[in-house]
Design a protein that fits this description.
42% helix; globular; alpha/beta
Length: 271
């Protein structure tokens, strides 16, 4: 779930580039890990917030109990439509456009609420946490991931520094946002303030994949709102920025079959 401004920016070709190039580079490793962690919880009713292009959603049916009710939501209609298109036919997932700060569901509707890399974009995180608590059943579980700092995620750090090189003034700030919510004490405080308990914060160090450095650069610059920011400043610079970022990635991880370190926080809290 993302704030309205970021929702607009995740449009056009961005959902496809996001899923095709950033999916394996950033999101698939955590999608597999998080979906597996949900299995032992055995939720009969699960709500996914900020499903994006459905990287986690695709793994939910085989990790949850047979017949579990799954509702997948996003604030962005284009991202949600892409996620729905990518799901195998015959799935029984319910798809809703919904804002995390005002969920359109009755009190105590879900056994589990999941959000992979969405909480950083919430327009009002305390309110969103309070609404998640409201819609959880007693004893229900809230599970989410948030990126650790840029220093632990080198591909994103390189993208951010490359943008700063080309735009030293009015630097596109997109990469600052997803990697800014990683202080344990703040996360625990905000969840406790909403009423959650038994809060656990775990750091996961996984590895992302890209077939080529060029595709990794394409995903980072054309699969995020960084693309909108670059085009709005000087569209002619996009191929130059992309080529420079590909060179940086090649120097660090090779030109093909890149294996890129990733680090994020897995947070589990109970109502």
């Amino acid at each position: 779930m993302i704030a309205q401004q970021e929702s607009i920016a995740f449009s056009g070709n961005i959902p496809a580039n996001y899923d095709n190039y950033l999916g394996p580079l950033f999101f698939e490793p955590f999608a597999l890990e998080v979906a597996a962690r949900l299995g032992p919880l055995q939720p009969a009713a699960l709500l996914e917030i900020a499903c994006g292009t459905g990287r986690v959603t695709r793994h939910l049916p085989k990790n949850l109990p047979a017949g579990a009710d799954i509702v997948a939501t996003d604030i962005n209609p284009e991202m949600l439509a892409y996620a729905r298109k990518m799901m195998p036919e015959g799935n029984s997932i319910i798809w809703d456009i919904a804002d995390a700060v005002s969920l359109p569901y009755r009190n105590e509707s879900f056994d589990c609420i999941l959000s992979q890399f969405g909480v950083m974009f919430y327009s009002d995180r305390p309110q969103a946490y309070a609404d998640a608590l409201r819609t959880l059943k007693p004893g229900g579980t809230f599970v989410f991931t948030a990126w650790d700092a840029l220093q632990f995620n080198p591909a994103a750090r390189m993208a951010d520094s490359t943008l700063a090189h080309f735009f030293p003034v009015d630097t596109p700030a997109f990469f600052k946002i997803p990697f800014s919510y990683n202080e344990d004490h703040l996360i625990r405080y905000e969840l406790a303030l909403a009423g959650f308990k038994d809060i656990r914060v775990e750091r996961l160090s996984l590895t992302g994949y890209a077939d080529t450095a060029e595709n990794a650069a394409k995903g980072l610059l054309e699969g995020t709102p960084a693309h909108t920011a670059i085009v709005g400043r000087d569209e002619a610079l996009l191929p130059l920025i992309q080529a420079e970022l590909a060179r940086e990635l090649t120097a660090a991880f090779g030109a093909t079959n890149l294996r890129v370190p990733l680090q994020a926080l897995l947070v589990i809290a109970r109502k």
